[in-house]
Fold LacI family transcriptional regulator.
Amino acid sequence: QLYKNKTDLIGILLPTVANPFFGELTAALEDRLYQQGFKVIIGNSMNNPQKEADYLQQLLIKQVDGLIVGSHNQGIQQYRHAGLPVVSIDRIMNQDIPVIASDNYRGGQLATERLIAQGVRKIIHTNGPHDLATPAQRRRLAYEDSMKEHNLQPITYELDFNISTADKDKVFQRIFVEHPDVEAIFASNDTDAVQIIQLAQASGRQVPRDLLVIGYDGTQLVRELVPQLTTIIQPIAQIAQTAVEVLQRRLAKQTKQKEYLLPVSLWEGTTG
Ligand code: RIB
């Protein structure tokens, strides 16, 4: 008699569902997995490698059939050696693990080209730490390439992931102090973009009259609350659906493809 060695449990590890992008992505993943007969265990790593390692260990003890991971600042070796199918979403892992992400280079290009086309020259970009393999680094690269193509000087401000909103305020305020002539800001996510708009307005700058701002992600939440925000839409539902399909193919040992790049699009609001 064949023993079916399956739990139909999938582990999902992400930075934090408090971030609307990861929250919506988690909801879409869970729903898709549920439709396919799986249940999920969700962990928020909070970008804390120790918490992530603890979760990974527990998920292995619970004998999950597979893992969907979007948070792995460290511990890549652990995933490699976990001995079960792993799919990475939104972040680059290593050559063995498939990555499902949107086309972040194209997104960075669309945002930067959009600002340049509006005649502004001093465009500043905010991004996460440059030494992590996040997809936002491709946005940064595209921003730098587009700026250089137009003979413009790229200027990037790096923000740590776990800093408080108040500390982010300080970094964004520094932009206005150090670059009072800033004409546009390309933020690497929507929540930062909204925060920047609020700070700009508090400092007497009107958006878009005095400052253009473009965000990134285009989550449903932000598009409903701030429909005027110009942003790059990541296809969250499509990322989730592809991740689940690839995981199922990996479970069935049917695919070796490594990278799945999904299209982004520009949401033409009025802020940038
Ligand atoms: O804050 C969410 C951002 O972090 C998203 O843009 C996502 O792609 C991740 O890198």
